[in-house]
Design a protein that fits this description.
By secondary structure, the protein is α/β, with parallel strands linked by helices. The chain has two domains: 205 residues, NAD(P)-binding Rossmann-like Domain (Rossmann fold, 3-Layer(aba) Sandwich); 64 residues, UDP-galactose 4-epimerase, domain 1. The chain contains eight helices and 15 strands. The strands form five sheets. Strands 3-2-1-4-5-7-12 form a seven-stranded parallel β-sheet, with helices on both faces. Strands 6-15 form a two-stranded parallel sheet. Helix 1 packs across helix 6 and helix 3 runs parallel beside helix 4. The longest helix is centred in the middle third of the chain and has 19 residues. The radius of gyration is 19 Å and the shape is globular. The two termini are 20 Å apart.
């Protein structure tokens, strides 16, 4: 397949590109700065369109319609979910970008959403549930999804909205829990400060997430919302303990040092039944 990818140098994108090339896909990436692509091991194996998707004056090449699918991973400002600029700046820019892609002839789009779209719901989360996002990042994502669904009535196209749960792996943001723990272990710190760890979450290795996304695009007949999750709840404390064991570290945990985040429910995880149907059947 001919893939057009945004966010290719990000956490998920890097792993997705490597796997896509390994599977024989022809990949073109959209990037603000092509030097960020060319300095990757795979940088000379992909086509590059050097533009800013959030710039309304962007001029696009005539080759857009030649791609089989657009995988839209990019989103600015992920370090702070509660900034209003997700709604005020990023959302309208991405609406314009996606409308341009659809008008240019793209017939199949995969967009990554977020489990935060569900709001502060507890327990197992299924795709059919109503959503009540209460942070700007999640509100912007849900608004974008609803807008795309309405656009499908005017210009038919396949929309695969993949709600990401939690991930870990190489290239993760330095401020993430496991990145900070890894650094503490490498530094030989005797103690690691964290929350009480009682939160229940749903985690996947980022390589698995990339694998699932590439499996999803093979199912062009599948349209709608899909949880990208393990379906297996785990406490943050258990996750951390497993990580420490795997690193053969003796670091001690200072539980309760940080408060629990106020924008998330204490215990939630994804239902993976639909995911299994899409990627296995």
């Amino acid at each position: 397949m001919k893939l057009l990818v945004t966010g290719a140098t990000g956490f998920i994108g890097t792993h997705l590109i490597i796997q896509a090339l390994g599977q024989g896909h022809q990949v073109t990436v959209i990037t603000r700065d092509k030097s960020n692509v060319l300095n990757r091991d795979w940088g000379h194996q992909v086509g590059i369109i050097e533009v800013d998707i959030e710039n309304p004056e962007t001029k696009w090449p005539d080759t857009i319609a030649s791609h089989d699918v657009l995988i839209h991973l990019a989103w600015s400002g992920l370090s702070n979910y509660q900034q209003s600029f997700h709604l005020d700046v990023v959302l309208p820019a991405h609406k314009q970008f996606l409308q341009t892609m659809i008008e240019a002839g793209i017939k199949h789009i995969l967009v990554t959403g977020t489990c935060l779209e569900y709001g502060k719901k507890e327990g197992e989360l299924t795709e059919s549930m109503p959503v009540f996002p209460d942070v700007p990042y999640a509100q912007a994502k849900d608004n974008l999804r609803q807008w795309l669904v309405s656009l499908q009535k005017q210009r038919p196209f396949t929309l695969q909205w993949c709600r990401l749960f939690y991930m870990y792996g190489s290239g993760q943001h330095a401020n993430s829990l496991l990145s900070q723990l890894e650094k503490a272990i490498e530094n030989g710190d005797p103690v690691f400060n964290m929350s009480g760890g009682e939160q229940v979450r749903d985690y996947l290795a980022v390589e698995t997430v990339a694998h699932y996304l590439l499996k999803v695009i093979e199912r062009q007949e599948c349209n709608g919302i899909l949880n990208i999750c393990s379906g297996e709840p785990i406490t943050i404390l258990e996750l951390v303990k497993r990580f420490i064991t795997a690193r053969q570290s003796n670091i001690e945990l200072n539980l309760g040092y940080y408060p629990y985040p106020d924008y998330e429910a204490m215990a939630f995880w994804g239902n993976a039944d639909k995911l299994k149907q899409w990627i296995i059947s």
